Each structure stands twice: as C-alpha cells, then as structure tokens.
Amino acid sequence: MFLIMLRDKITASLEAAFSQYGFAEPSVAQLKTACNVSLRTLYKYYPSKEAMIVGALEYRHQRYLSFLQNESPSCSVESALHIFNKLEQWMKEYAPHGCLSMNAIAAFPDNPHIMKAVEEHKKEVRLLLGQQIQREDLSMALFLLHEGVSSAWPVLGEEAITSAQKALLQLMERG
Q1: What is the Cα–Cα distance from 87 to 164, expressed in whole angstroms?
Q2: Where is the HTH tetR-type domain (predicted)?
Q3: Dist CA 162 CA 52 (whole Å)
C-alpha cells in the first residue's frame, strides 16, 4: 500500500513539475527535487525521463476525466455548457500554459510512447464529451471546440470559452 501511495505521490509531483516548467527544461535532478525523493527512488518507478512524462500524462488523463464528469448535469444543453465551464476552471487552476498533452507532443514530436499516451487521452476525451451531451453525432465537433479552447486559452482566456459555448449551442440547435 505504501509503495502505491509513494508512486502516486511521485506521479502527481511529476505532473505538477511538467505543468509548471514544461518538458524540455526540468532535468531529472530537478524532477527528483520536485518529487522530494532520491534519484534511486525516482528511477525505481520511472526508469527514464520519457517514462516520467508518460506517467505524468496518464495521471493527468485520469484526473481530467474525473474532473469533467464531476457534477455533470443530465440535460444535453446544460451538459454542453457545463463542459466548457469545467474546462475554464481546469485551465485557470491546472493548465494556464495550455494543454499538457499537446505541450508534450510539441516537446517530443517523434516519441512513440508519448504520442500513444496523448492519442489515447484525446480519444477518451472525445468519447466522453459525446456521451456527456448525449449527442454522439456532435462528439467530434465538440472535441474540436474543446481542443481549440485548450490551445487558445493562454492567449484568449475566457473569450475562448464564451465563443466555444456559443458555437456549440448553434450546432446543437441545427441538429
């Protein structure tokens, strides 16, 4: 039990460090310090920086899915607006520099392990978004709006949220 808790603590610390400093800047020594463990302990759970990144991305993925599902209304229109309200909260609190997954790909575009973790995350987010608004036919459009907000957030902030909500409501009215 202690080992699982230690691994979770390390993974959460890695996620926070990569979110704050990006992927290129922090050295393994800096990551060790951020995790408050020895280098040996860090490498026991994550034998490479690549493994640390993938672990942080997978941890963030689970946190994000849980976060989106929290307090989700049952009405499709309310649920659609709720998604973007939750996204706004997430961006303010956890992702002021944009989507961690896309930042990982930007830093390591040719890494197949990081690419796979990001692809799985994006696929599951798209499916969840379609389920939440009870409109599978709009899941890709909703996903693209969601991704656009995540990418535009550092520049546009709340304006990106408002625009995405309006666009989604227009799509829902048409269909």
Answers
A1: 11
A2: 4-64
A3: 35
How far apart, in whole angstroms, are the C-alpha atoms of residue 117 and residue 36? 25
The three-point CA angle 28-150-172 to 5° equals 150
Give me the amino acid identity at 158: E
> In this structure, what token pair is assigned to residue 162?
């408002």
Domains in the chain (CATH in brackets) are: 2-174 (1.10.357.10)
Give pLDDT, residue 175: 63
Nearest to 20 by CA among 96, 117, 121: 96
| Tens-digit pLDDT profile for residues 21-65 | 999 889 999 999 999 999 999 999 999 999 999 999 999 999 999
Place of tokens 């020594």: 29
143 token code pair = 């996903």
| Largest Cα span, the chain | 57
> Residue 5 is which amino acid?
M
Query: The whole model's pTM is what?
Result: 0.89
pLDDT digits (tens, 9 = 90+) for 67-118: 988 887 777 788 888 899 999 999 999 998 889 999 999 999 999 999 999 9
